[in-house]
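# step 3/5: fold
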Amino acid sequence: MDKRQHNNLYGSSKKVNLQNKTAVHKNAPKSKLKYEDKYFIDTTKSVWNYSLFTATDIKNFKNGTHYSLYKLLGNKQIEVNNLKGTYFAVWAPNATYVSVIGNFNNWKVKSHPLNVRGDSSGIWEGFIPSILRGEAYKYHIVGYKGIKLDKGDPFAHFWEKRPATASICWDTYYEWKDVKWMKERKKNNALNAPWSVYEVHLASWMRPEKNNENLYNSYQLITQKLVPYVQEIGFTHVEIMPVMEHPFDGSWGYQGTGYFAPTSRFGSPQDFAAMIDAFHVAGIGVILDWVPSHFPFDAHGLYLFDGAHTFEYGDMRKGFHPDWNSYIFNYKRPEVKSFLISSARFWCDRFHIDGLRVDAVSSMLRLDYSREEGEWEPNEFGGNGNLDAIDFIKKLNETLYLDFPDIQTIAEEATDWPLISKPIYDGGLGFGMKWMMGWMHDTLNYFKREPKDRLQHKNDFTFSMMYFYNENFMLPLSHDEVVHGKSPMIYKMPGNTKQKFANLRLLYTYMFTHPGAKLLFMGNEFAQTTEWNFKSELDWELTDLVSHGGMLYCIKKLNELYKNNPALYELQFSKEGFEWVNLNNTSQAIFCYLRKGKSTKDYMLIILNMSNQVQHNWKIEVGLKNKWKEIFNSDSKEFWGSGLVYNNEIQCVKTNKLNKKCTLSLSLPALSAIILQ
């Protein structure tokens, strides 16, 4: 294959900053260097026999207990015998030949062969002088049954911008400025801290040209625009949809090929690090979507990496994902377990990530996920649990919390699998939090109903608190709810335009005052009027309208309310933090509950009027205090509400001195929430 043919098939591979095209430096010493009693450098060869691995590294790798493989595998710019170059190492246990190909050798497959270790580890390695940072390359692999493959490096930190598919010699070195955040993040990321998460798809949040899917803002420009925006609106964290390198934009990043590389669509690893750094300096935590559940079949990726099922299960009843036409990691294989846990640690270690949202956990746990009878095989105990995946998840969480105790792992798990976010020592899987998918479905179904019909479906609204304490829940209104014909949030709401906005403000107030962490997808904060389109950008012009600008301001005020009131977060996963008030009132679609902090002075009373009728002189009996004030009203004019119904002075009459009860007389706006303190 000549160079033109290669570029047509695999994309152009331009070298960057290569200082010397010669494979072997003309001044290379002729002597041999003994390395660890076993490796000798023959400087007359194009690839020197050299290794960074110790015997302990190999043992741990083969046992599935090496969790920092990114320090050894991939490409490493080092110096040997006073010569700068790159050490390459790749795991290809079924290969019979592996070489490094690139522009530096005109993609000649015989030019730079790697050396296979003699310890049955399946690692091919070697040092190539004069190959420096910026060189594009692939591994040419002669694999199982002689199949010939050109693969990207699974451990590369930088890749060519799609549609090109070569890996690039690069490092992750960056001088961090987030010392203050790292010292304080134990408090910021604790379960008794406020978690208001803004979910972002970097490419489509904002583009240089709105409808040009081939143009992206750089990490630098995203940083300049996104960080101050998130800070202004008041979110405590951002969650970035998969930023790991991926070939197809339409997968939204969930079909990844580079588990150790931020995508080059927006810039270099250092540019990505600078973005994380800027969020931290601004006091904002960063969560990454991470996908250990499946990967695509792209020719340069992990599938059939060396001609055999190396990373995926060989049995397609376990190894193929019918929903996403992708392949499932072999969680039983020790080296794959080391690969995945090393990936998770890599983002926390090298990029100071505050949390990982683990995608599609349900599909990992269940052997029968999206499979009909006869399409799956029960485990050794006759059940439907993937015992390999369960063991992997426990080890993943155990390792991450041991090494990075100030982060959180968050499971996207949509079934009733028990103890997802409970400690491993108590029989749980060890996640810090779990997405509350049941709350999301029930809440949206309830709010879609006409107000006149809501009274008959009261149990649908209250059901979430029946099982809330089973897990540490995050309430998600995510990207999945505003695509594929599901309609944007504003058009899920019934009524005329005014009523739609009132309903949505009511829903958001309910979300921010319900126990648990919160997650809101980009565009939801200002009531985007179209479904999310990854090819475009958000409809930012809407924020200039008083209606949408009012919604954005409402979210800002809800974030302030959440962060500044311990009653809303201090006991957010504890039974002591929530109490229904007068729940037995079945004659009206009005809900009332207390949110409690550790101090009674922090208590807050939330009243949600789900009907489209204003209520005057509405009475509710409460305890503890005889003086209350209204601190939030979702019908306020500043939010584009009517602004007609307020409680400037709240009448409070003691009705039960023995039990310290008093009755409040209130006015409730239609389709609105008021909060008293």
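# step 4/5: annotate
The chain is about 25% helix and 20% strand.
# step 5/5: archive (pending)
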